[in-house]
UniProtKB/TrEMBL annotation:
Secretion signal span: none
The organism of origin for this protein: Paenibacillus medicaginis
Pfam families cross-referenced by the UniProt entry: HAMP, His_kinase
Name of the protein this chain belongs to: Sensor histidine kinase
Phosphoprotein keyword on record: yes
EC number of the protein: 2.7.13.3
Length: 590
C-alpha cells in the first residue's frame, strides 16, 4: 500500500475539493451556453421572420396592383377596343395616355422600383408607363404561369434576378391566355431586396442574404461572398426546414446559421454570425474562472507546502530524533530554522539530549571508575600472591647464596611496585609502560627460566602518550594463560608499529592459543557488560582505550605467528596530522 506523506495528502485533498467545483462549473457553463444558444437562435429566427414579413408585405403589395387596376374604367374600356387597322385613333391614344398616367401613379405609390405592363390581346399591344407597342402573343403565353416568376439576368454589376407576376382577366382564362381580355404584368428586380438587406444588415451584426437552390443567391452589397459560398456548401443539398438554426464550422471557426423560408417566393432568408463573438463574454468569464481556479490551486499547494515545511518536517525531524535517541545515539541534534515555535522545541530538544549525554557520560565514567576500583581491588588480591612468590624466590636464592639473583629480584620488584602505586597520572609515555612491562617480564623470567622475551619498540614511538597499566595486563595474560600452562619453553614478543598516525602494539606468545570461534567469542564479550567468566583486566583495558581514544580504538585478538595468541592494542595518535586525515583507517589488523 502506498504511504502518502502529509504534503501529498493536503495537495490530494485540495485537488479532490476542486474536482466537484470544476464539474459544477462545467455543468453550469454548459447549461448557460445551451440556453444562450437557444435564445439567440430564437431571437435570430424572430428577427428574420420579421424582416421576411416586411419583404413579403412589399411583394404582396406589388402583386395586389393588378387586382386594383383591372377594375379601373379606363382599363376596362381599353380591353373592349378592337382595331381593324394598325394605328390607334385619337380616342385610343388619349385612353392610353390616361392609363400610363395611372400606371405611373401606381408605381410611385411604393418604395420599390417596379414596373406595370398591361397587355390587350384584342389590340395586340402592351402599355407600360413610358411606351405602348405590339407584342408576340405566343411569347407571352409561354411566360404566363401562376405565382411569381423569377428570371436570372446578367447586368453590369453582376447577376440580378427579375421577379414577375401575371394577372389574367377574366380569371378563368388563366389556363388559356389567348382567350383573355386583359393581362397585367407586374415586375421588379432583386435590387429592391438588396436595399432591404443592406438596411437590415446595418441594424444588426449579421450578414443576411437570400438563397434558392434552383436559382442562386441574392447578396447584400457588402456581403462576404467567399464565406457565404462556404456556408452554403456546409448546408449541403438536403432539404431545409421552414425555420431552423444550424451550427457550421468554417476555417476552424463556428458560425450560427439561421434560415427562414418565404412561402410567397420560395426563397430562404439566411443570416449567420460567428459564435466566437457571441460567446466572447462567456469565454472571458471562463478564462477568468480558470485563472482564478488555477491561482487558488497554486496557493493551496503553496499553503500545503508551507504547512508541510513549517509543521510536518519539524515534527518528522523530532520523531526521527527521538528514535535515534531511543536507539542510544546521543549525538543527535535538531537543526534550528526560523524563529517559530518549532525552533524553540528544537532548542529545548538539543538541550535535553545534551544534558542526557552529559549524564550518561558521567554515569559511564562512574562505571569506569568502579571497574578500575575493582581492578585495583583484584590487583591487591593478586599482588600478595605475586609478592609471596617473589619473596619465596628471594628466600631460596638467599639460602643458595645467590646474592646477585636476590639483588636483581629486589631491584625489579621495587621498580614494579613503584610504577603500580603511581596511578594518579592519566597518561604516561609509552616508553615508561614498556619499561614497567620489562621489569615484570624480568621477574617472571627469574622465576621461570624457560620464559624468554623480546621487545621491539621504534625509537620515534617512545614519547607516545598512553593510559598507564594498558600493556601489562595483556603480557600477564600471555604469561599466566599461555606460558605457565605449557611445560615447554615460553616466548613473549612485544612489538609496536606506527603508520600514518595509527599506532599498534602487539603482544605475541607461543602458548596453546585459542581457536577462531573462541577468539570471536572473546571479542564479542568486550562489547558487553563484564561478567564473572571474563577477565577484569582485559575488559578494563578495552573500555579505557575506547574512552580515551574514541570508538575507533580498542583491543583485538588473532592467532600469533609463533603459534599462540596475539593481542593488539590500536588507536590513533591525536597529535599527528596524518592521523587526523586517516582517522578511520586505524584497525586492529597488522
Amino acid at each position: 500500500m502506498i504511504k502518502l506523506n502529509f504534503y501529498t495528502k493536503i495537495v490530494t485533498l485540495a485537488v479532490i475539493m476542486m474536482i466537484p467545483i470544476m464539474l459544477l462549473y462545467f455543468y453550469s457553463n454548459k447549461i448557460t451556453t445551451d440556453v444562450l444558444s437557444e435564445e439567440l437562435g430564437a431571437s435570430n429566427i424572430n428577427q428574420l421572420v420579421f424582416f421576411q414579413n416586411q419583404v413579403n408585405t412589399n411583394i404582396e403589395l406589388v402583386s395586389s396592383w393588378p387586382n386594383l387596376l383591372i377594375h379601373d374604367p379606363d382599363i376596362l374600356s381599353f380591353q373592349d377596343i378592337f382595331l381593324e387597322d394598325e394605328y390607334l385613333n385619337l380616342d385610343a391614344i388619349n385612353l392610353v395616355k390616361r392609363i400610363q398616367t395611372k400606371l405611373s401613379l401606381q408605381e410611385s405609390s411604393s418604395n420599390w422600383d417596379s414596373s406595370i405592363s398591361i397587355y390587350s390581346p384584342s389590340l395586340g399591344r402592351v402599355v407600360s408607363e413610358r411606351d405602348a407597342q405590339r407584342y408576340e402573343a405566343s411569347d407571352l403565353n409561354k411566360q404566363i404561369r401562376p405565382g411569381w416568376q423569377v428570371e436570372k439576368v446578367a447586368g453590369d454589376e453582376g447577376e440580378r434576378f427579375v421577379f414577375s407576376w401575371y394577372t389574367v382577366s377574366p380569371f378563368s382564362a388563366e389556363q388559356h391566355p389567348e382567350t383573355a381580355n386583359t393581362i397585367i404584368k407586374v415586375e421588379f428586380d432583386s435590387s429592391n431586396i438588396q436595399d432591404m438587406l443592406d438596411r437590415f444588415k446595418s441594424d444588426g451584426r449579421g450578414d443576411p442574404f437570400y438563397f434558392r437552390k434552383d436559382m442562386g443567391v441574392i447578396y447584400n452589397r457588402t456581403a462576404n461572398y467567399e464565406l457565404i459560398d462556404q456556408l452554403l456548401r456546409g448546408l449541403g443539398d438536403g432539404e431545409f426546414k421552414m425555420n431552423e438554426n444550424r451550427t457550421l464550422e468554417v476555417n476552424g471557426k463556428q458560425y450560427m446559421v439561421s434560415l427562414v423560408l418565404s412561402e410567397d417566393t420560395g426563397w430562404y432568408l439566411i443570416d449567420y454570425m460567428p459564435l466566437s463573438e457571441i460567446m466572447a463574454p462567456i469565454d472571458q468569464s471562463n478564462r477568468l474562472f480558470y485563472v482564478s481556479a488555477g491561482g487558488l490551486l497554486l496557493f493551496s499547494f503553496l499553503a500545503a507546502y508551507m504547512l508541510y515545511s513549517q509543521v510536518q518536517v519539524p515534527i518528522r525531524q523530532l520523531v526521527a530524533g527521538f528514535k535515534r535517541l531511543a536507539a542510544g545515539d546521543y549525538a543527535v541534534r535538531m537543526q534550528r530554522k526560523g524563529s517559530h515555535e518549532f525552533s524553540f522545541v528544537a532548542d529545548r530538544f538539543n538541550q535535553m539530549v545534551e544534558q542526557i549525554q552529559q549524564l550518561f557520560e558521567k554515569v559511564y565514567m562512574e562505571k569506569i571508575h568502579v571497574r578500575e576500583a575493582r581492578l585495583k581491588q583484584l590487583q591487591s588480591q593478586i599482588n600478595p600472591h605475586f609478592f609471596y612468590n617473589c619473596f619465596s624466590f628471594m628466600t631460596s636464592m638467599a639460602k643458595l647464596k645467590k646474592h646477585e639473583a636476590v639483588i636483581a629480584m629486589s631491584h625489579h620488584l621495587s621498580r614494579y611496585y613503584r610504577y603500580t602505586t603511581r596511578q594518579e597520572r592519566e597518561l604516561v609515555p609509552l616508553e615508561e609502560e614498556i619499561e614497567f612491562v620489562t621489569h615484570y617480564l624480568e621477574i617472571q623470567n627469574m622465576r621461570m627460566p624457560r620464559l624468554s622475551y623480546s621487545i621491539d619498540l621504534p625509537q620515534r614511538m617512545d614519547r607516545l602518550s598512553v593510559p598507564p597499566l594498558m600493556l601489562q595486563p595483556l603480557v600477564e595474560n600471555a604469561v599466566i594463560h599461555g606460558i605457565e600452562q605449557n611445560a615447554e619453553n615460553g616466548l613473549i614478543h612485544v612489538t609496536a608499529e606506527f603508520d600514518q598516525g595509527c599506532v599498534r602494539v602487539h603482544v605475541d606468545d607461543n602458548g596453546k592459543g585459542m581457536s577462531g570461534m573462541d577468539i570471536f567469542a572473546l571479542e564479542q564479550k568486550l562489547h558487553r557488560q563484564m561478567d564473572e567468566n571474563m577477565g577484569c583486566g582485559v575488559w578494563n583495558v578495552y573500555q579505557r582505550m575506547r574512552l580515551r581514544f574514541g570508538e575507533k580504538a580498542g583491543l583485538a585478538f588473532s592467532r600469533s605467528v609463533y603459534g599462540g595468541l596475539r593481542a593488539t592494542l590500536y588507536w590513533t595518535d591525536p597529535e599527528s596530522i596524518s592521523a587526523r586525515s586517516n582517522l578511520y583507517k586505524c584497525t586492529g589488523g597488522g
